Amino acid sequence: MVAIQGFGYLGQALSSAEIVATMFGGGFVRRGQDKFVMSPGHYVIVLYAVAAELGLLSREELANYGKDAALLEAIGTERTPLFDLVCGSLGQGLSGAVGFALSARLKKSDARTYAFLSDGEMEEGQVWEAAMFAAHNKHRMGQLTVVIDANNSQVDGTVTFVTTIEPLVDKWRSFGWRVEEVDGHDVSALQAAFAKGPAAPEPLVIIARTEILGRMKSIPSTADGHFIKLDKDLERAVLKELEAALA
Fold first, then answer.
1. CA-wise closest residue to 101 among 174, 177, 195
2. Within the chain, where are the H helices?
């Protein structure tokens, strides 16, 4: 998809591929029953890829990714398929997810809500307001699971360069959340973490530590992981590495 125009959000797909594949391929997000919120809209490419593997999207649609008037936009909007909510400005997703979770609780529904956030969004105050609300003992949204792609990357550089958000584990726990910290490229660790989702009254946050280039050796470390330019030589090198890993 990124190769169609030679640039795009490949880094985000590489850092979150195992996370999203586990959520949907592992059966944790139940299609038609649970809610899924994508807070950073430029991450939608990863669910397009997963959906095509699961037969939820045709591969023909992938060929139009990012083109004018295409169904599959490079940055998701309110008309993006597969998601219950895709946000625009960063930091909004958890608030929307809290709304879904509160609605389910008031309806006495067993529907779960999953929200995908990026670590750069932890710089937004709205995230922490929503986190405080969700864990309040009056609300106790145990059916809410948040996963954070902690890849230490944002548009202006590394998250650690822009501002300090650590210690994430201690901060979320102090807000009353159950916390799991895992290697976000380890499918078994992700499966174990997601399996703990609806097991307690408190909401769960999974901090998935990842790398913006997905540990790919063919992409030079000097590449801008936030928005990768993929010329033909790099495209061939990336495909060769991926195909070798699948062999």
1. 177
2. 10-25, 44-54, 59-62, 93-106, 125-135, 159-162, 168-174, 187-194, 232-246
φ, ψ (nearest 5 deg) of residue 225: -65, -25
- Side-chain-side CA neighbours of residue 224 (13 Å): 12
| Domain span holding position 188 | 2-246
Q: Give the span between the Cα atoms of 64 and 57, in whole angstroms.
A: 12
Using alpha carbons only, give the angle 159, 87, 16 rounded to the nearest 5 degrees.
50
Share of the chain above pLDDT 90, in %: 77
Instruction: Indicate which CATH number applies to the domain containing 197.
Output: 3.40.50.970
Rounded distance, CA 226 to CA 72, Å?
19
Q: Which three-class secondary structure state does DSSP give residue 69? A: coil
Could you tell me which of 73, 58, 74 has the C-alpha nearest to residue 7?
A: 74
User: Which two structure tokens, joined as six digits, stand for 70?
Assistant: 């295409």
Tell me, what's the pLDDT at 8?
83
Cα(53)–Cα(30) distance, rounded to whole angstroms?
Answer: 16
Whether the upstream peptide bond of residue 203 has omega within 30° of 0, thus cis, is no
pTM for this prediction: 0.94
202, 53, 206: which is closest to 133 by C-alpha?
Answer: 202
Flag whether pLDDT at 34 surpasses 90.
yes
Please give the tally of structural domains in the chain: 1
Q: What pairing do the DSSP bridges indicate for beta strands 7-8 and 228-229?
A: antiparallel
Contact status, residue 108 vs residue 17, Cβ threshold 8 Å = no
